[in-house]
Design brief:
Elements: H1 3-22, H2 36-48, H3 50-66, H4 76-90, H5 102-125, H6 130-134, H7 136-150, H8 155-166, H9 184-193, H10 197-233
Length: 234
């Protein structure tokens, strides 16, 4: 992952976790608690892809496991958000942008349902039956409803911040290649001249070829003049 991705993801996840623990967790809403950390992971995975989404999801889930008042084994939610980040990243369009708002909203619904089921499933494996006492159907409904209501105010904003960070011209991919998406450095060059880089290179080559042809023509002309003068002297 790039440095700008790590810094941005760490800042957003930290803010989301603090708001979730100090504000959303104290609202005493019926059923589930609005999961702002999940929405942050979903938004970042939709921009960064499945690999970064899995890494961000694991780190965000581990912080949530360790944050008070944690009442479950550490690593449980880290596993859940790691899988969610990976799967959401796979749903990212090739162009990196959705044609309408229905794509992110449907992704949020699927992530809310999937995270609740995965959390309950992992809890059942380790002997935690809290989901049974609360009611799995009620948790699914309230978690999906709360996250869907909160998503329009968080997901577009986080995705916009992530895309702006990706448009940094100094950013370099971890594998050494150019950043995916729009190349802002090329855009700046094109904005100042109205030409693309390829057109600039082609123009330079054409000017160089013309210069060589003109010099060759002048040399031939000088040689022709010298030959005429020699004939006249003879």
């Amino acid at each position: 992952m790039r440095i700008n991705r790590i810094l941005l993801a760490g800042s957003l996840v930290s803010v989301a976790l603090v708001l979730q623990v100090t504000v959303l967790g104290r609202l005493q809403l019926p059923g589930a608690v609005p999961d702002l950390v999940l929405l942050t992971v979903v938004a970042l995975a939709l921009v960064y892809g499945h690999v970064s989404g899995a890494l961000i999801g694991f780190a965000a889930g581990l912080l949530t496991d360790l944050a008070p008042p944690a009442d479950h084994a550490a690593g449980r939610y880290a596993l859940v958000l790691c899988l969610i980040g990976y799967l959401v990243g796979l749903a990212r369009p090739d162009s990196g942008r959705f044609r309408s708002a229905w794509g992110p909203m449907l992704t949020v619904v699927a992530a809310a349902i999937g995270s609740t089921l995965l959390y309950a499933g992992v809890g059942a494996l380790v002997g935690d039956t809290a989901a049974r006492h609360v009611g799995l159907v009620g948790l699914l409904f309230t978690a999906t409803l709360y996250d869907l209501l909160l998503a329009p105010f968080t997901v577009p904003f986080i995705m916009a911040l992530a895309r702006r960070a990706e448009n940094d011209p100094m950013a370099v991919e971890a594998n050494g290649g150019p950043p995916q998406g729009k190349d802002v450095a090329s855009g700046w060059l094109a904005g100042g001249t109205g030409l693309r880089i390829g057109s600039q290179r082609g123009g330079l080559r054409l000017m160089t070829a013309r210069g060589r042809a003109n010099r060759a023509g002048r040399i031939k002309g000088v040689k022709g003049v010298k030959g005429v003068k020699s004939v006249r002297k003879l």
